[in-house]
Amino acid sequence: MPRKPEQYEAMRMATRERVLTAAVRIFARRGFAATNMREIALEAGISSGAIYRHYATKKELFDELLGQAAAGLAAAVRTLAGKGDPLPLLRDFAARFLADLSTGGAEAEFFMVINQGFTADEPPGTVERLVREHRALWRATTSLIERGQRQGQFAEGDPAELTACYFATLTGLATLRVTLADELPLPGADLVLRPLTEGRADGRRQTR
Q1: What pLDDT is attached to residue 205?
Q2: In which domain, by residue range, is 187 found?
Q3: What CATH number has the domain bearing residue 106?
Q4: d(Cα 51, Cα 38) in Å, to the nearest integer?
Q5: How many other C-beta atoms can be found within 10 angstroms of the C-beta atom of residue 181?
Q6: Which among 80, 77, 89 is positioned nearest to 134, based on CA atoms?
């Protein structure tokens, strides 16, 4: 029985998703410059010719990953710029990030790919495409911490420095997840938040 057009489309999208997943894995291991389309096709379980039916070039494939990264950052900015209580917002953000890391490393690998793009700017223009979203996320988090300090939810100190501690912990865990995999014991969200909450103005301590 001939397949319906929607069945062909579902198959095409499933293959495209496999290609994206494979690309993240190979880019994370080898970097953009050292990766070729044949390696990605092999990882995805398709022929070298088939991959070009989905992406004409390696840069086109990487551009789609950059688009996903930019959309994820924009969604994070909207979340942290919300009107909810600062402490629960930051805790929930950390909890979701840690939950993603615990699902097998895909999120950690994706983070590594984007981080490589920042440090090496490969392909050219990666930094410029993402820096706006990263700055917006940084400003939203800093403002959230400052608001939380006024409400007694966070420790005293420079909000920008506390923001740096928060993201340094999360990004460090993502990097370690790629290298150590399941050997890495992931902390809970409250432990990640401890530098922000120890000695906070209301005198209470966070408990796990």
Answers
A1: 46
A2: 63-208
A3: 1.10.357.10
A4: 8
A5: 11
A6: 77
This prediction's pTM: 0.80
C-beta neighbour count of 183 within 10 angstroms: 8
- pLDDT at residue 66 above 60? yes
Give the model confidence (pLDDT) of 147-169 as tens digits.
999 999 999 999 999 999 999 99
In Å, what is the CA distance from 101 to each residue of 17, 112, 136?
19, 12, 23
- Cα separation, 95 vs 88, in Å, equals 10
Contact 101, 178 (CB under 8 A): no
How far is CA 199 from each of CA 2, 90, 207, rounded to the nearest angstrom? 67, 17, 13
**Whole-angstrom Cα distance, residue 161 to residue 87?**
16
Domain end, chosen from 18, 40, 56, is at 56
Q: What distance in Å separates the CA atoms of residue 105 and residue 110, rounded to the nearest whole number?
A: 9
